[in-house]
């Protein structure tokens, strides 16, 4: 079976986000909450396909199709609690590649100084 040519593949987007809150949050907890929230909001048939690429306890990145970015943003903003820990979600930005998402949003966040207000 031949692979699809690049022009026929679905375009991906990478959404960088951050959870402001107390306590450590595991990657598996975030993945479970994201999947459950999307199913609750859009149903099993219309739920957008997503994959948690990375999460370091505070910030992370989700992959989805380009047409489902808005649904993922809505899902992220509606998360208030992860395993009993209150969180405030913050969407940092959307990029077309993993590399640019890390460079534009996640590395800037890691290198940011709290005095800058970020």
UniProtKB/TrEMBL annotation:
Alphabetized InterPro entries for the sequence: Pop5/Rpp14/Rnp2-like (IPR002759), Rnp2-like_sf (IPR038085)
Biological process per Gene Ontology, one example term: tRNA 5'-leader removal
Compartments, as annotated in UniProt: Cytoplasm
Keyword Cytoplasm attached: yes
Gene Ontology CC terms: cytoplasm; ribonuclease P complex
UniProt superkingdom: Archaea
GO molecular function: ribonuclease P activity
Recorded catalytic activity of this chain's protein: Endonucleolytic cleavage of RNA, removing 5'-extranucleotides from tRNA precursor
One Pfam family this sequence matches: RNase_P_Rpp14
Listed HAMAP family: RNase_P_2
Subunit-structure text: Consists of a catalytic RNA component and at least 4-5 protein subunits.
Protein name: Ribonuclease P protein component 2
Gene field: rnp2
